[in-house]
Design a protein that fits this description.
The chain is mostly helical and 125 residues long. The protein has two helices and no strands. The model has no long low-confidence stretch (mean pLDDT 88).
């Protein structure tokens, strides 16, 4: 309005009829978006909590399995050392028996040779 005396008179805008309803609509849209984002955030937080719980449980299970594995490794080493010691003992026993067998064979062979020589001497007499 060119004849207006004040700034308010210059703007012949119906604040109550046009702008305020539009602003109210914008406010409602933002409120709805905020509620949706809040709901989504809540869902994500719940999902994060479940994930954190699962991760904690899995870490605990891994720690338990690692402890079991460490115990098994210690037990394996103990058993292996015992078996290795027994194998070494049996190998030594086998070598000893082999040496005795060789000595017995040599003694028998020597005794046989002496007996054959004696028989020949007796036959010649």
């Amino acid at each position: 309005n060119r004849d207006a005396a004040t700034a308010q008179d210059m703007l012949e805008v119906d604040l109550k009829g046009r702008i305020r309803p539009h602003l109210q609509q914008i406010q409602e849209e933002y409120s709805e978006r905020t509620r949706e984002a809040g709901g989504e955030l809540l869902g994500l937080q719940q999902r994060q909590n479940r994930t954190d719980t699962t991760v904690a449980e899995l870490k605990e299970e891994i720690a338990t399995l690692q402890a079991d594995c460490d115990k098994m490794s210690v037990r394996y080493k103990e058993v292996k050392e015992a078996v290795d010691a027994e194998v070494a003992s049996k190998e030594q026993e086998a070598r000893s028996m082999h040496e005795k067998a060789v000595q017995s064979r040599q003694a028998a062979s020597s005794s046989l040779a002496q007996s054959e020589a004696r028989v020949k001497r007796l036959q010649l007499e």
